[in-house]
Amino acid sequence: xxxxxxxxxxxxxxxxxxxxxxxxxxxxxxxxxxxxxxxxxxxxxxxxxxxxxxxxxxxxxxxxxxxxxxxxxxxxxxxxxxxxxxxxxxxxxxxxxxxxxxxxxxxxxxxxxxxxxxxxxxxxxxxxxxxxxxxxxxxxxxxxxxxxxxxxxxxxxxxxxxxxxxxxxxxxxxxxxxxxxxxxxxxxxxxxxxxxxxxxxxxxxxxxxxxxxxxxxxxxxxxxxxxxxxxxxxxxxxxxxxxxxxxxxxxxxxxxxxxxxxxxxxxxxxxxxxxxxxxxxxxxxxxxxxxxxxxxxxxxxxxxxxxxxxxxxxxxxxxxxxxxxxxxxxxxxxxxxxxxxxxxxxxxxxxxxxxxxxxxxxxxxxxxxxxxxxxxxxxxxxxxxxxxxxxxx
Length: 393
What we know:
The protein is of the alpha/beta class. It folds into 3 domains: 6-221, HUPs (Rossmann fold, 3-Layer(aba) Sandwich), CATH 3.40.50.620; 245-315, Tyrosyl-Transfer RNA Synthetase, CATH 1.10.240; 324-391, Structural Genomics Hypothetical 15.5 Kd Protein In mrcA-pckA Intergenic Region, Chain A (Roll), CATH 3.10.290.10. The protein is built from 17 helices and 13 strands. The chain has helices at 6-14, 23-36, 55-69, 100-114, 129-132, 137-143, 149-153, 156-163, 170-186, 198-210, 247-254, 259-269, 274-278, 282-298, 300-315, 334-340, 347-355, and strands at residues 19-21, 41-46, 73-78, 123-127, 190-194, 217-221, 324-328, 332-333, 359-361, 364-365, 372-373, 377-381, 385-391. The strands form 3 sheets. The protein has a 6-stranded mixed β-sheet, with helices on both faces. It has a 5-stranded mixed β-sheet with strand order 7-13-12-9-10. The chain is globular.
């Protein structure tokens, strides 16, 4: 996509974006980029506080890939220094601080996973410890002069905590200042973030001005609701689709996305023509969405196989061809088999599914958590998990 006009670049950049501050500034930067044949510096920061990425994270990563394809320089900032502080954004309590070894382990995992989306050959990966660990205490303290306590307390999350008499540490006040200084060091032309990051991104503009730089354009992307259609996608809410999940699991989860959210998923997670999507029957649109998501992380063949398997199992009510097996050496409670086989993660999850009427053995609903499995058969948990139980006694 390199060599596109400014108007076409803006059309691509706008897709899915919530806000661009400001679009006029971005247009001028793009015009200068074309004229001077100089790619823009596109910055996005990631605190490596969790090792696994899901589709919610990819909303930002996909926008970065678009900038790469447009010929711009994407800077993937790993906040190994700020990650040890913890971004207070959206938190009601002080975040747990991570040690250096934990941050670096997570950072390496991130790098491996983002290679599924970003062109690593064109990606500039930097760690902000490179400059912050060299700063003296005096230099660090001088950074605090670039903002005020009243500005910090204007943050919505800080205001809420203040109203509840909850603690806010001075360390948390430092986070947006340090994030803003990252933009100075990297001479960022554009910084991307979620809508919950708007305060930190705007602080970056102010600090760049103070250092005599042209302020960065701020581009915010929406937070993606998870499979429950309510909370943002998160492992803690168990409403996520992980980018490293198996194709069939990924396809099945994508099929559970609500019709109301489907177009948003198409917009943020695929490059599909939205006009064509709107013309499809909802069932076919859902199938194509799931197929597009799987294709993006596992390839065309895996996506086609996942669709065929889904249609065979769920449309024709058959069982999967490829099922894990569990050898039953003696009669056991269904809860124990569900957990020991790995079909569910915990006894609590197993009991919850049974209570919801979502566990079946040989097509018969298990009504009680005290149910004892005896003999061979197919155990089904939820709509997508199957286990072949083989009695060996």
